[in-house]
Amino acid sequence: AALVELRRAAGEVAAQEFLSTPLLLANGESPVNGSDRRSGGEGGSRRVVALSPPPPVGIPWRSRATAMALHATSSRDSVRAAAEGEPEWAGDASRRPAAFYSAVFAQIEEVGWERLVSGKGDGGVSCLVFRILDDQGRNHLLEITLPMNYPSSPPCLVADVPYLPELQWSKGSRLKDVVCQFQEHLKILQDYWSIMDDIDKVLWVVDPTKPTFAMSHRRIALGDDCYLLLHVNVRKPRSLPEVRFLGTDGKLDRLITNWRKYCKKWSADKKFHENLSTVLDFALPPPPSVNIEDDEQVDCGICYAKHLPIDDELGTHSGGTTDYTCENPSCSRAFHSVCLRDWLRAITTTRQSFDVLFGNCPYCSDPVAVKITDR
Amino acid sequence: MTSSSSPSRKALSKIACNRLQKELAEWQVSPPSGFKYRVSDNLQRWVIEVTGAAGTLYAGETYQLQVDFPEHYPMEAPQVIFLNPAPMHPHIYSNGHICLDILYDSWSPAMTVSSVCISILSMLSSSPAKQRPQDNDRYVRNCRNGRSPKETRWWFHDDKV
């Protein structure tokens, strides 16, 4: 009976040891639970040291030194515990069996410790995030959540992709299989992403300004306040997309008519933007010269735009950026003073003193004040 | 039907047009649960299908919301009504007019079509009984000439439903 208990304690110590190591190797910093370590008997201590994964090649020297230090500390703790002659093991049973942890660590090793970005939950292995590089050098984070009855049940995946692959899973499957299937999925998506990159490069995309890998929509400026809201079919990216026309009616009528008349001219062999020009019978404007300043501008909380429209009625504010910020530090919402003034004028609770309007922030209700006139 | 009444609408201002395009793009990327935008090229009028939430009196039932935007949206609230048939609810009149403060006095440009829809679904979900408002007949009679619910002086008294 004592021998059985000793073996169980050794297993738990091994699992506990493994809990610390991947976080260290992945993040290059000392884990929080590093000091929370238990040591087994003499036999257990030998096994612990032997089972620790070796530092992978290419790890920065600082991290390697830390890893070495961790091993040294572990050895010293084991020696001290052995010297005391009183082995120590966990009083309460863990929710998962010890075999689960050793199995998962073996599987992480198959994938490669250098790919592990983070682990959290249930001792750091319930939710694993791996870094996967695709053929074009795009970085993807694949989050794998292991259910309580893993591997009988398949893990759950989260990733910044337009759709997830259907996971082929059996009780004998391993994390390596998940990563391989995700990599195959990324290969399938390469064509779709190259098309989206082409659209972002060639056309005047006004929204989203910083698209994620999952976003399949683009709002494209056609000039004269007309826009095309485009949805690319993520599974058949070269097929005819779903489009919506937004803007003033006069000019749009011709484009809508052309779209309906010429949509059969769409060809899977031609470039996406060439197809658009052909079907619309319209020369699509190129993107405006890159304005780095715009990336730093914030959207107005009322009109949802960085810049006011170019309009004579707005006078000196025509095309202007946000120039008022709510003073509540928790809010700090930005507004065009023109928009804020129009809003305050529209409601009955606004108070006026000389040439200043006093009211409340639409978002946090803290006081705001804005001048009536430009001067 | 009075529920299909449409106010005399001016064309959207540039600011309203731009904001609605962004709201629409955001909607199509992540629509609120239980709602489906009826596709149309009319940016000024949205027709949205509402499905009652599971576990409520309206589970599985589908209604249609009509949202009309004024020239100076979002400085002014949109007009939101249920198209016929309107759900039986203590704060929804048979002509589709909705007694909900954020559609009138409590409107704020911080709100969006999406947040308004969620509030309406919440109001439906909180309903204790499928019944009309007490003053339904009188109110509907007064609105027979196509009057907009925004012209009504509402008295909001119920914080639970």
From TrEMBL, chain A:
CDD domains referenced in this protein's UniProt entry, alphabetically: DRWD-C_FANCL, DRWD-N_FANCL, RING-CH-C4HC3_FANCL
Record-linked Gene3D superfamilies: RWD domain-like, Ubiquitin Conjugating Enzyme, Zinc/RING finger domain, C3HC4 (zinc finger)
A GO molecular-function annotation: ubiquitin protein ligase activity
Protein name: Os03g0726900 protein
GO BP terms: DNA repair; interstrand cross-link repair; meiotic DNA double-strand break processing involved in reciprocal meiotic recombination; protein monoubiquitination
Pfam families: FANCL_C (PF11793), FANCL_d2 (PF18890), FANCL_d3 (PF18891)
Originating organism: Oryza sativa subsp. japonica (Rice)
One GO cellular component term: nucleus
Domain FANCL UBC-like: 99-187, 192-286
Domain FANCL C-terminal: 296-372
Chain residue ranges for the region called Disordered: 29-52
TrEMBL record, chain B:
Protein name: E2 ubiquitin-conjugating enzyme
Function as written in the Swiss-Prot or TrEMBL entry: Accepts the ubiquitin from the E1 complex and catalyzes its covalent attachment to other proteins.
PROSITE patterns: UBC_2
InterPro entries per UniProt: Ub_conjugating_enzyme, UBC, UBQ-conjugating_enzyme/RWD
Organism in which the protein naturally occurs: Oryza sativa subsp. japonica (Rice)
UniProt keyword annotations, A-Z: ATP-binding, Nucleotide-binding, Transferase, Ubl conjugation pathway
One function term, GO molecular function aspect: ubiquitin conjugating enzyme activity
SMART domains the UniProt entry points to: UBCc
